[in-house]
Automatic annotation (TrEMBL):
ATP binds at residues 60, 64, 119, 145, 153, 197, 239. It is an enzyme of class 2 (transferase). L-threonine binds at residues 37, 69, 123, 143, 183. One of its GO terms (biological process) is regulation of translational fidelity. Pfam families: Sua5_C, Sua5_yciO_yrdC. GO terms for molecular function: ATP binding; double-stranded RNA binding; L-threonylcarbamoyladenylate synthase; tRNA binding. It catalyses: L-threonine + hydrogencarbonate + ATP = L-threonylcarbamoyladenylate + diphosphate + H2O. InterPro entries: DHBP_synth_RibB-like_a/b_dom, Sua5-like_dom, Sua5/YwlC_C, Sua5_C, T(6)A37_SUA5, TC-AMP_synthase_SUA5. Its EC number is 2.7.7.87. Keywords: ATP-binding, Cytoplasm, Nucleotide-binding, Nucleotidyltransferase, Transferase, tRNA processing. This is Threonylcarbamoyl-AMP synthase.
Length: 350
């Protein structure tokens, strides 16, 4: 299949180009498009055959439901049975933005989209191009992240092209994803609401609106296989680069010392190794491929860069990536959730 790539400039969403892309989705095709979290791979959420193509293009397990994207609040009402007041308050505070709500679905959402579940995840993204596209299409867009299943989610158009060229009808974009990690997912079919996947809207932010909100215990007992996460996708090996990732957890000076020791051992054995560092520590690593995720004082930059850096290490052909850790609170919880999965919970605690 020929994949058409269309670049849109920020602040100038050309109408005729957008119409052409919307037509692709209306005709049952697949379009990868940018959102503020990560790029998504979209299809008409009401069209089973189109949605089926998403699963095939990504190599996605059939039991992993998709998130449905809307462009304005009114568009949610036909899609769900009811909106509990807790969900409504969270929507009023955080939409449009990087947060998805799980609600009981109406019959217009096919089981193909919800992967057989009676519930559906809905998100109103803030990215202007995403919003304009959904609006132009005129139907909600079902979209998982636009990566091949198991790989880190794409946060720029080139990573999308790398994964999906030849597999989808069209890839659009231009600007990089501002957030860089997938949306926070909140299950609002239960009371109080439960966070199934941490993201840029943190549990601390959610609790300011819904004080009883809690995090799916399976996320906090992560290495323990007895806890089954409630979001089907959270159980899969995920965000994984080709290289093996090892996380070093501990006081920062000791972490640097330990990483240098491990790197030296690998180099002595003739193995190419990468170090995922931060602005505060990068000059303390003298050997190996060193890339900083950003400053520890600005976790949003760490989140924005994480998936891109994991993919860059694969480009460099390192066999191991040794990473520093971050405190698992506030936004650090989402960052460590992705990093822990990339590492398959291969963690050395000092
Ligand atoms: O930021 C995002 O959410 C991006 C952009 C494109 O919007 N999308 C995204 O989709 O990350 P995906 O498919 O890669 O991840 C969706 C996650 C999966 O872990 C899935 O299991 C969970 O959401 N999920 C979707 N519907 C669900 C439901 N009804 N109940 C529980 N979990 C659900
Ligand atoms: Mg994904």
């Amino acid at each position: 299949m020929d994949t058409k790539v269309l670049i849109f400039k920020e602040n100038n969403i050309e109408k005729d180009k957008l119409r052409e892309v919307a037509e692709v989705i209306r005709n049952g095709g697949l379009v990868a498009f940018p959102t503020e979290t990560v790029y998504g791979l979209g299809a008409n959420a009401f069209d089973e055959n189109a949605v089926e193509k998403i699963f095939i293009a990504k190599g996605r397990p059939q039991d992993n439901p998709l998130i449905v994207h809307i462009s304005q609040l009114d568009d949610i009402f036909p899609l769900v049975k009811e909106i509990p007041s807790s969900a409504k308050m969270l929507m009023d505070n955080f939409w449009p933005g990087p947060i998805t709500f799980i609600l009981n679905k109406e019959t217009c959402i096919p089981y193909k989209t919800s992967a057989g579940l009676e519930t559906i995840g809905i998100r109103m993204p803030s990215d202007p191009l995403a919003r304009a596209l959904i609006k132009e299409v005129g139907v909600p867009i079902a979209a998982p992240s636009a990566n091949l299943s198991g790989k880190p989610s794409p946060t720029d158009i080139n990573r999308c092209i790398e994964d999906l060229e030849g597999k989808v009808d069209c890839i659009i974009g231009g600007s990089n994803s501002e957030v860089g990690l997938e949306s926070t997912i909140v299950d609002c079919t239960v009371e109080p609401p439960c966070v199934l996947r941490p993201g840029a809207i943190t549990i601390e932010m959610i609790r300011k609106i819904q004080p009883e909100a809690y995090i799916d215990p399976a996320l906090l007992n992560k290495a323990d296989q007895n806890f089954k996460p409630k979001a089907p996708g959270m159980k899969y090996k995920h965000y994984a680069p080709k290289a093996s990732v090892i996380i070093i957890k501990g006081e920062i000076n000791k972490t640097v010392e330990k990483i240098n020791e491990i790197v030296q051992n690998y180099i002595d054995d003739g193995i190419k190794v990468g170090i995922m560092a931060t602005d505060e520590t990068k000059t303390y690593y003298k050997k190996g491929e060193v890339i900083s995720l950003g400053s520890r004082s600005d976790l949003t930059s760490i989140g924005r860069n994480l998936f891109g850096v994991l993919r860059t290490f694969d480009d460099l052909g390192v066999e191991y990536i040794i990473s520093e850790a971050f405190e698992e609170k506030e936004y650090g919880l989402a960052i460590m959730n992705r990093l822990n999965k990339a590492a398959g919970y291969n963690i050395i605690s000092l």
